[in-house]
Design brief:
This protein is an alpha+beta fold. The chain has helices at 2-20, 112-143, 149-177, 183-189, 201-215, 223-254, 295-311, 327-336, 354-358, 383-396, and strands spanning 25-32, 38-45, 48-56, 61-66, 72-79, 82-88, 92-99, 102-109, 266-268, 274-276, 284-290, 316-322, 343-345, 366-370, 376-379. The strands form four sheets. It has a five-stranded mixed sheet, with helices on one face.
């Protein structure tokens, strides 16, 4: 029995120790041509790069260690222009080898994701070297006195576009291939300078969304993941605000007002026959927008029935446009509300209704009273207003 209790105690002790075990990461660095400088470790915090730690390089070697349960976007830096970005992951040992005079060219081992970032970095440095040679060649060409500068500059821009497009294609392919790796964030961040980026929000929004969807849930504590996710939220809000503003401008521009001439519309009735609004010229016409699913419309229909019966023999007609999308429901609504006596049309496109768009209808019920000459003389008449206006119109007549 004592042996059993002893074994249970050992198991419990091991379990407790394992539960308290914290995640950590380490960086072991080896640098050629070092003068025992201070090397800084920086990280991204609240969209700013700040110093995280520092240490002295001794005999070309340095070491950083930290307890962390999240992936980190880090920078190793010896001086302002001698630095390089890195990815480190929890419970990972990164072996970093480079030259103290140029940290940008390095080799890193530690995990598949770290090696992918290293691959990206190598391809980027190769591009910069090619571009440096490319710029030098064109500088020499432009320095020649008799050179056609306009032609040379065009040639330069065209060639630069080819360089950029080729690397852009490489990065897109890299992201698609490694969509489940945080190295994708590093690919999206690459740029030549402040003015030349390989990705644009308008052109590559779907790729950015794809990366966010694939990685954010797993890496939401990773600063690059948070930044992209928050950026996409802000972008969506701005796009929605812009769309709403544009729509408001369109509605304002297309707003129908009393005194305007009516616009002709011609759509099919329940029998499939097209009927034009302008075919009713010479009559007073109530152009009414409704739908069988619209309760306020259904409550208003009895008022229409009442005025129609009273004024139909005095040169009055109703041209009723439905925003239904189901023909059966539309016909049932007509039958149930006893609306069979006047003209009904619909394109059955719901809120994408073309006649509704033409009359800038944003809510229903909506109506327009049109006189004999096709001019709008009243809008959105309800109940007593409807009866009052018709009494006024036909008394004058």
């Amino acid at each position: 029995m004592k042996k059993i209790f002893y074994l249970l105690f050992i198991i419990f002790l091991n379990f407790s120790c394992n539960s308290d075990k914290k995640s950590f990461w380490e960086i072991y660095g080896e640098l050629k041509n070092s003068n025992d400088e201070i090397i800084f470790l920086k990280h991204l915090k609240n969209e700013k790069i700040v110093i995280f730690d520092s240490t002295k390089i001794t005999n070309g070697k340095f070491h950083f260690k930290d307890t962390s349960s999240k992936s980190e976007y880090l920078f190793l830096e010896i001086s302002q222009f001698n630095n390089t970005p890195l990815l480190i992951e929890p419970n990972n040992k990164l072996i970093f080898k480079s030259d103290a005079k140029n940290l940008k060219n390095y080799d890193a081992k530690g995990s598949k994701n770290i090696e992918l970032v290293c691959e990206l970095n190598s391809s980027y440095n190769e591009l910069l070297e090619k571009l440096d040679t490319f710029f030098t060649v064109y500088e020499k060409k432009l320095s020649v006195k008799k050179v056609d500068s306009v032609k040379t500059i065009k040639e330069f821009k065209d060639s630069l576009d080819i360089f950029i497009k080729k690397h852009q294609d490489y990065l897109i392919n890299f992201v698609e291939k490694n969509i489940n790796s945080p190295s994708s964030y590093f690919a999206l961040m690459q740029r030549i300078d402040e003015k030349i980026s390989f990705f644009s929000i308008n052109e590559h929004i779907e790729l950015l969304k794809k990366v966010d969807k694939s990685l954010y849930e797993k890496y939401q504590d990773f600063e690059l993941a948070k930044n992209l996710h928050n950026f996409l939220i802000r972008y969506k809000m701005m796009a929605e605000q812009k769309h709403a503003s544009q729509q408001a401008e369109v509605h304002k521009k297309n707003a129908i007002k009393i005194g305007d001439m009516a616009k002709d519309i011609s759509y099919k009735n329940p029998d499939g026959k097209k009927i034009s609004l302008f075919s009713l010229k010479g009559k007073y016409v109530l152009l009414d927008f409704w739908a069988s699913w619209c309760k306020p419309c259904r409550l208003e229909n009895p008022n229409l029935v009442k005025v129609y019966k009273k004024y139909k023999d005095k040169g009055f007609e109703i041209y009723q446009v439905s925003l239904d999308k189901d023909k059966k429901s539309w016909l049932q609504g007509i039958k149930d509300d006893n609306l069979e006596d006047w003209i009904h049309v619909s394109d059955l496109k719901y809120w994408s209704s073309e006649p509704a768009a033409k009359y800038n209808v944003r809510s229903i019920p909506s109506n327009f009273l049109i006189d004999k000459n096709g001019r709008i003389i009243a809008m959105n008449l309800r109940a007593e207003e409807l009866e009052k206006k018709f009494s006024e119109v036909f008394t004058k007549k």
